[in-house]
Amino acid sequence: MNNSNAIALIHSGRAVSYATLHARGREVMASYGDAQVVVGETNRLDMVSLVHGAWAAKRALFALDPTLPRPLREALLAPVATTTAATDVRLIVATTGSTGTPKAVMLSEANISAAVAASNVRIPLHPGDIWLNPLPLSHIGGLSILYRAAAAGATVLLAERFEADHVWAEINAHPVSHISVVPAMLAQLLDAAGDRPPPPALRVVLTGGAALSPALAGRALAAGWPLAPTYGMSETGSQLATLMTIDDTWRPGQVGRPLDSFEVALVGDGRLAVRGPAVMCGYLNADLRPGDGLDENGWFKTGDVARVEADGTLSILGRADDVLISGGVTLHPTAIEAALSNCPGVEGVAVTATQDPTWGDVVVALYVGTIAPAQVLAWARENLAGSYRPRQAVQVDELPLNRLGKSDRRALKKLIEGHKPAP
């Protein structure tokens, strides 16, 4: 990693050079001795130091989410001892576990280097650029920014946590060129900004981690924010595809062409498969269920259903595990959510289903907004095709999201239990 006197990090008003960070990383690493380097995100400056120190020492760093319930943390940690200093693994990071038990993804030095190189080609990053990072450092999205910036000699402006007013103030206080956000963060940032445009220094608002609704994209574009929808996962070292510019012709799910060195294919039920040098070594807690990991030809089968357009760009339709089947029609919740986000008075929406003996899945929309459930259903009857219309709308104070702003599908199902259909 970079070991120059260039500014590596700005944190809590303090600028830290790469040389200082490198030295701090050696000190922090020394405290681990021969023990496995397992760390939960407590002090963000120490976490960044560990990332640099572990890389320099050619040690595996396990970035463990401290918010995970204890039984899940223990299950993830159980096989850590099998990764020895002799392996090429440099980072172990858990998936979000939004649909089940988190998986511990192993990324090698070659994986991370390939992911960084591909990202820095698609999203140009130069010495002197500043990437504002409000994402958790226990997940690949936040960690990957550290590796990209080090390779480019750029600076990371590290927010202690995401607070929209503070982040908006930081964007105006520093010549921030890049920022990474999930859609929920973007909405709060626009609120904090009063839908004003960002400073001209901001070139890229990398938006991923969850589906971007057309309503939110339209709002950001109208305010002059340079959105770049992106798609990726822990297993690909973060980014897999990014669309660098969008306009009013953009459609939900469009994420651009795959980054250089990635191959993609659609398999079986339309799931996206990917291969390339950035794709993980495998799972530390392997064989969680049939099909996990890589096949004999190096292909990783994702959990996402996708479409490859004629020009080679990707559109992500949704999670295969989230698919609903109503009256024999296959429905993707994200498509319904994107449509319902256009309903006046709906500020946020998530879709789940109840079971019917005749129809199978019956679409239910949970929403945050100012209009009554009957009005949501009336709008849906006017604007959506039959199968896509929710049969029930439930107004809630807030939608259940995980730490990265993705809809918590299991929590949605629990939330709908006990609600009676609107008359």
UniProtKB/TrEMBL annotation:
Lineage top rank: taxon: Bacteria
Pfam families according to UniProt: AMP-binding, AMP-binding_C
SUPFAM superfamilies per the UniProt record, alphabetical: Acetyl-CoA synthetase-like
Residue ranges of every copy of the AMP-binding enzyme C-terminal domain listed in the record: 336-406
AMP-dependent synthetase/ligase domain boundaries: 82-284
GO BP: fatty acid metabolic process
GO MF, any single term: medium-chain fatty acid-CoA ligase activity
UniProt xrefs under PANTHER family: 2-SUCCINYLBENZOATE--COA LIGASE, CHLOROPLASTIC_PEROXISOMAL, ACYL-COA SYNTHETASE
Protein name: 2-succinylbenzoate--CoA ligase
The organism of origin for this protein: Magnetovibrio blakemorei
